[in-house]
Amino acid sequence: MARVALVTGGTRGIGEAISVALKNAGYTVAANYGGNDEKAREFSERTGIAAYKFDVSDFEAVKEGCARIAAELGPIDVLVNNAGITRDGVIHRMSHQQWKEVIDTNLTSCFNLSRNVIEGMRERGFGRIVNIGSINGQAGQYGQVNYAAAKSGIHGFTKALAQEGAAKGITVNAIAPGYIDTDMVRAVPANVLEKIVARVPVGRLGKAEEIARGVLFLVADDAGFITGATLSINGGQHMY
Ligand code: NDP
Predict the structure, then answer these.
(1) Which of 3, 151, 192, 220 is the most buried (most CB within 10 A)?
(2) Is residue 239, in this structure, part of any structural domain at all?
(3) 238 lies in a domain?
(4) Known catalytic residue: 147?
């Protein structure tokens, strides 16, 4: 039977490309989203992939969402923690809410999701978790103490959980994308984006499908010896 994969923030941007790539590779995919019903509906109509609305920062909502997916599609063997937001600003102007929203959505979500699927993975002796970090979690970024802290936290979370899951057939890896052409990056002012692209040796923004390529590699059944790793996919912008 096809393995079930849950992709958080799986209806738009990088998550959409991951959901579609997993479906094309034969997985049964559940694409989570947070609030944009219209995009989610369009996505499901276009791809035939079921969309599940719940807030990844809310532990109880995640618990219910994971239970619903398991009941409707089967036990979750593959988890891609992709949902993320930005609330940029320099720290001397950043509100506590901007800090908290980003930490809760980008980092606490990884705990919420992993906690709700890990016991089943341990029982079945198989699991694949991929957490989407960021180049800005590796290198830092002006105006993003909240985002950089959350993404950097993801990289530590990945290594610790990889150690816990190893003996149970569960691998846990991270991908650190560089600048990828999605709504999130389109929100960056054009003059700033131009300067960013000038620093990318490959000379362009990445495509969401190029991140999905890495996810497929890491979640494969025969990728069991790859765990605790961070795969940087950034056009050579930051060589870690
Ligand atoms: P988008 O803004 O294009 O899409 C974000 C997705 O996350 C949407 O599906 C959105 O759902 C979902 N989401 C946001 N908040 C929540 C929530 N509270 N609960 C559930 N779902 C939520 O983002 P990208 O595709 O650009 O980014 C995807 C991931 O990649 C993020 O973690 C981001 O930090 C990371 N990343 C992106 C880079 C880039 O250059 N784009 C670079 C490095 C990392 P909805 O449609 O309902 O809003």
Answers:
(1) 151
(2) no
(3) no
(4) yes
- Ligand 1 within 6 A of 23 CB? no
Phi, psi of 175 (to 5 degrees): -120, 135
Strand order in the sheet with 127-132: 50-53, 28-33, 4-7, 76-81, 127-132, 170-177, 230-233
What's the domain range around 78?
Answer: 4-232
* Residue 162 counted as domain residue: yes
pTM: 0.98
pLDDT in tens, 11-51: 999 999 999 999 999 999 999 999 999 999 999 999 999 99
Nearest partner of 137 among 188, 102, 189, judged by Cα:
102
As for how many domains the chain has, the answer is: 1
Ligand 1 atom index nearest CA of 58: 18
For residue 84, give both structure tokens.
Answer: 């993320």
Give yes or no for a contact between 70 and 91, defined as CB atoms under 8 angstroms apart: no
**From the CB of 55, is ligand 1 less than 6 Å away?**
yes
Residue 103 — φ and ψ, nearest 5°?
-65, -45
Determine the residue of 56, 138, 182 to mutate for testing ligand 1's pocket, defined as the one with the most ligand atoms within 8 A of the Cβ atom.
182
